């Protein structure tokens, strides 16, 4: 019989959140709490199905609406960022899955770690903005960050059983290349949000889909890998792999390379983060390599997609510079989705952040201050 874990799911209404509920249902894990931002209809249906004891909406009007709608159920509805943090720290939780999009996930991650909970982390912006603060908090409280992002889950899986002196030479992140693989900058100048939202291999939330089109997603993942695996950026490589079958690789000093493969289905890494260290049957389909036939690999195009190098530079600058680049990217993606700026402007606006000096990162307030300032700079144009 499999053990169960009581789950707090932050960002339950999103792409990862709904897949996580699918996984939790099949595992028979009780859902203690669900949170969302504004999608009251979706979370109400989830509450009626999963019967959590708590729910929270970060938007206060949405919280009031939800409270009225579920008044017939024994569920306590909290509101605002504070409410989310309170649920992230629920003492009766066994694991907190953070599937919030953007830096809004940082405070709940910190609240969960500080309360002594393992965090299954999809919210990569937590590590991009919070960096060492987050990993040191996890260490100080003796808890784990369990990667949900498919590349980092792949590396984490490859590392299982590695000796303490692990002789790791490099990690290799695979990238699908997104919808604009093979294009030139000139060809990308006029692409629309609708063009950029068509991802070849993954069906994801809007923000990460745009990040995949600019390849900022891979840059953010480079920073995420730096903190999750304590790897210096020069030991993290990126290779474009169009089929998204190899989810990432590690290389040892003897040049042995280990990879993790599977069909592109986020329920595999979500489930592994929840059941870790155990493995159980999954709803994902079996991989048939013969059916796929060919796996292809390319060098990333850093001219058309400068976001990867930008993230490397932000890591080298250090302090709150990655938080500023992340915030500028979030703000710029929102403007692009509204049709207010062009596709190439997204990375350009994020890159502008490195023209400024950013303070050291000693506290959560430092991160949030840099985040606010970067957003203001983007708004000013
Ligand atoms: P979605 O946009 O689909 O979902 C985001 C979730 O966060 C929703 O539940 C949303 O609530 C909630 N949310 C939005 N804004 C806020 C806020 N300000 N405060 C609190 N909650 C908020 O995103 P994804 O599921 O695609 O991505 C989630 C995270 O996982 C991202 O960090 C992404 O990079 C990462 N990830 C996603 C993958 C994927 O396949 N989708 C793969 C790997 C990583 P509401 O619906 O009410 O707005
Ligand atoms: Mg990924």
Question: Short summary of the structure?
Answer:
This protein has 381 residues and is α/β, with parallel strands linked by helices. It has 17 helices and eleven strands. It is globular.
Mean pLDDT over the full residue set: 97
SSE order, as H and E?
EHEHEHEHEHEHEHEHHHHEEEHHHHHH
What is the terminal-to-terminal distance? Answer: 57 Å
The molecules bound to the chains, other than polymers, are:
NADPH dihydro-nicotinamide-adenine-dinucleotide phosphate, magnesium ion
Radius of gyration (CA) equals 20 Å
Sketch the major β-sheet.
7 strands, parallel
Count of alpha and pi helical runs: 17
Read across the widest sheet, the strand sequence of neighbours is 4-3-2-1-5-6-7
Please tell me what the overall shape is. Answer: globular
Explain what the structure shows.
The structure is a single chain. The chain has helices spanning about 15-25, 40-50, 60-70, 80-90, 105-115, 125-140, 150-160, 185-190, 195, 205-215, 215-230, 265-275, 290, 305-315, 320-335, 345-350, 365-380, and strands spanning about 5-10, 30-35, 55, 75-80, 95-100, 120, 145, 170-175, 235-240, 245-250, 255-260. It has about 375 residues and is of the alpha/beta class. Helix 1 (about 15-25) packs across helix 12 (about 265-275), helix 6 (about 125-140) packs antiparallel against helix 15 (about 320-335) and helix 11 (about 215-230) packs parallel to helix 14 (about 305-315). The model has no long low-confidence stretch (mean pLDDT about 95). It binds NADPH dihydro-nicotinamide-adenine-dinucleotide phosphate (NDP) and magnesium ion. Magnesium ion (MG) binds near residues 149, 150, 151 and 221.
């Amino acid at each position: 019989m499999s053990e169960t874990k009581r789950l707090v799911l932050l960002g339950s209404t999103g792409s990862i959140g709904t897949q996580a509920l699918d996984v939790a249902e099949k595992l028979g894990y009780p859902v203690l709490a669900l949170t969302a931002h504004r999608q009251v209809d979706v979370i109400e249906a989830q509450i009626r199905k999963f019967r959590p004891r708590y729910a929270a909406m970060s938007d206060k009007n949405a919280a009031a609406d939800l409270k009225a709608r579920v008044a017939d159920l024994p569920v306590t509805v909290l509101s605002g960022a504070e409410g989310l943090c309170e649920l992230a720290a629920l003492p009766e939780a066994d694991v907190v899955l953070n599937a919030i999009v953007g830096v809004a996930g940082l405070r709940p991650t910190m609240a969960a770690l500080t309360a002594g909970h393992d965090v299954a982390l999809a919210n990569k912006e937590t590590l991009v903005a919070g960096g060492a603060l987050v990993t040191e908090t996890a260490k100080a409280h003796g808890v784990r960050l369990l990667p949900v992002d498919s590349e980092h889950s792949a590396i984490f899986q490859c590392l299982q059983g590695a000796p303490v002196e692990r002789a790791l030479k490099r990690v290799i992140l695979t990238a699908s290349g997104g919808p604009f693989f093979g294009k030139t900058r000139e060809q990308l100048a006029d692409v629309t949000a609708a063009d950029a939202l068509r991802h070849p291999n993954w069906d994801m939330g809007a923000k990460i889909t745009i990040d995949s089109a600019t390849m900022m997603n891979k840059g953010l993942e480079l920073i995420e890998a730096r903190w999750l695996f304590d790897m210096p950026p020069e030991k993290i490589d990126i290779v474009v792999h169009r089929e998204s079958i190899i989810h990432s690789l590690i290389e040892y000093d003897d040049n042995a390379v280990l990879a993790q493969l599977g069909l592109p289905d986020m329920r595999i890494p979500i489930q592994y983060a929840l059941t870790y260290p155990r493995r159980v049957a999954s709803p994902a389909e079996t991989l048939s390599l013969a059916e796929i036939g060919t796996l292809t690999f390319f060098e990333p195009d850093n001219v058309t997609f400068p976001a990867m190098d930008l993230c490397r530079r932000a890591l080298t600058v250090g302090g709150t510079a990655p938080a500023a680049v992340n915030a500028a990217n979030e703000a710029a993606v929102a403007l692009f989705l509204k049709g207010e700026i062009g596709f190439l402007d997204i990375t350009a606006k994020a890159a502008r952040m490195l023209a400024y000096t950013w303070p050291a990162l000693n506290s959560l307030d430092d991160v949030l201050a840099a985040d606010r300032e970067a957003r203001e700079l983007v708004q000013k144009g």
